[in-house]
Amino acid sequence: MSRLNPPLTKDDFNNACWQDVVNGSERKDCLSYDSAFSKKSQEAQEAGNLRDQAVFVVLAVVTSAAIKPESTEEFFADIFKNLTDDHLEFLAGIAPEISDPELQARVADILWVRRRDYRMAQLAIPAYLQSATTLESPEHWTHCVDRMERALRLARKIKHKDEVVFSHIEAVLDRYNGEDPLWLSAKLMELLQECQFRDPSKYAALSEKAATLAESSSDWRRARTLWGIKAVWHRMEKDYSKELDASMSAAETYVKEAQAALSRTPSSYIVASHFLQQAVEAFRSIRGTKEETVGAKARAEEVHRLLLQYQEETRNEMITSSHEMDISEWVEEARNHVRGKDFQEALFALALLGTPTNVSRLSQQVQQQAREFVASHLFPVVMMNEMGKVTARQPGSVLSSNPEEAEAATRFEMCRNAIYYQNLQAQAYVEPARYQINLEHGVRLNDMLSIISHSPFVPPEREYLFAKGLYAGLTGDFFTSTHILIPQIENSVRYIMWRRGIITSGLDDSGIQNEHNLNSTLNRPEITSIFDENTLFDLKCLLVEHAGSNLRNRMAHGLISDSEFMSPLMSYIWWLTLRLCCLPILIHQQRVEQSNSSTDAI
To answer: For the chain, what is the mean pLDDT?
Structure first.
């Protein structure tokens, strides 16, 4: 920002008609003011009014960021580091006279974090509370909660008027009495708990009322949170019996959510199984002595038995949906492949069950289809998502006389066809074998950790992440496994390349070294020395090819829906990761055994 000589003054602020922006904003918050202040600065520049322009530029900077109250004050200060001493002096002069509480709170807060001006922190606290009142809405609750939270953190930081903030929060909670439709009451009670606030019995009752109302509207996640809040209130008053009851109620919401998944049309045992798995873990993790948690452990076993029934239905659900193909023999073969083995042996057997997509065979099939169904291959294919947007376009025809165009089109078709084979393998082999392992073994996270912690595919300090992701997938939680494993695959590829002396980052014009992402690394020529042709094709098709599943890029941009996370493809990417982790271990064991055999022979 350019500097004026002389610097801006209070009179410049009063003469700039800044109130027009505030009065004209439908919602009284800084982000709404920001664009209007920017527009005003442009108008002042065009009119040649440099002092008005400078005022509005400063106000636009002041209101440009959405301050998150949980962030550190150093982070706040860094956001506004471009404000000069002259600007801060100007803001200090106008802060006490700003009539809009939202703008006053922001200006005063900036002066606190930049200058540690105690008086400005004192000024910001009531201004934030007044702004919270203006923005209060049970539907758009984040605006008021953010300001109350910032006021509370400031008050406790400078030990000033925290009782005033507590009283304000209590008044809001009393006003809604647990009947707000979303998260306002829950978030405010969590704030009070963080500060070890008084009167836990009052708010335990309020939490129970809000949780019961949330359950009545089938808002299971909010109900679960509120039961958890109630448990904390009881812990604060040292009523551990009631804490346990509230924790049980929180865990039961997973069971109810599973039942809700079956009552919908169409019903889904896949989704229901996911929530039952969460329920088992919730019951097992309930706090208390061995005697106190007997009921919770018994309930966990009861739900676990129900989970196994649901998982059996899940298998049938998958078989039924597999294009009406009868894969029952393959399913039984897969279960027999891991049946009766100890856990490690069964897991390795699953890792080796089936193979990645056969590239040579798939290419031949595409060529054969093109020759047999000429008409359908004359025109390039266009792929679209559920919103009708084009996500991939075939580069020409498989039958093109141009070899490069025909090869690119063939590759495109191979990626499309691979999705079918990957789905089929997951349904016919991976899922039945996974189900059988869960049926025979009560697997825990540490069981997985002990197996894969020495895998060459797993970089140092990533063992727990891989174990957590693989454990989640083994137990059917593909929401968790997919989110953990895909980024870890990307990092592992870079790690292996780095270990082989291959550069995995680039240097931009500013001297910043950015790591290459999976779109780049999987297409490096050196990658063929790391992965075999079939595995490399699967990784590309699953993760980065637009004609394939493109899971890495779609997940990174939030484009995968709830139902897709429960699709067989997520089971397949989990299995492929398991294979990548286990195969080097098995190869090493085989070499050791062969070496020992040779030694014995000598």
So the answer is: 86
